Amino acid sequence: MFTVPIDGESFVLGRVVRVLGGNVLIAVYAESLKSVREIDLDVLDRAAPIFLAVTMDLRLIDGQWSLVGEWSPEIELRLPRYKVQAGDGAFYEQHLDGSMGRSLTAAEAERLPNYSSYSPALVEMAVRAHFGHETWRPVFDEIRIEGSA
Do 36 and 30 touch, CB atoms closer than 8 A? Predict the structure, then answer.
């Protein structure tokens, strides 16, 4: 687990879901905390993340996102799927590791996003916007988990 700052006093928790070379797939949770002593793993086990994003591991390496422990939820997240268009114009499923899966129907291709990596700064901006400390931008919808507030 690691912290993502909201403001100078509070933070949310994130966790690395999958390591992808120099990138990581992270999940960010909504509970605002002021101290690591406030972390309640029972509450976290029942929580659904608000953001899921592929980002660089830079903030973890340089310590701007402080590591605060290890935790794996009781129920693992479903990994995202993406679309990729082949030279023949057809769309195929693309997995996190870059491998291609089955061909997609037009409806599936419309619904699935293209694979994208987002800067750690954008993740922080989305967290601040979630708490009303920054203007919401449409790009934040790309990392927001459907159904989260």
Answer: no
Given a contact cutoff of 8 angstroms between Cβ atoms, the answer to whether 17 and 28 are in contact is no
The single-letter code of the amino acid at 90 is A
Predicted TM-score (pTM) above 0.90? no
Can you tell me the distance from the alpha carbon of 106 to that of 92, in angstroms, rounded to the nearest whole number? Answer: 10
Domain ranges of the chain: 2-79+116-142
Handedness of CA 60, 61, 63, 67 (dihedral sign): positive
C-alpha to C-alpha distance for 49 and 31, rounded to whole angstroms = 9
Tens digit of pLDDT at every position of the chain (149 positions): 999 999 989 999 999 999 988 899 999 999 999 998 888 888 887 888 999 999 999 999 999 999 998 888 777 778 888 999 998 889 999 988 888 899 999 999 999 988 899 999 999 999 999 999 999 999 999 999 875 45
Handedness of CA 3, 5, 8, 11 (dihedral sign): negative
Cα–Cα distance, 124 to 55 (Å, whole number):
11
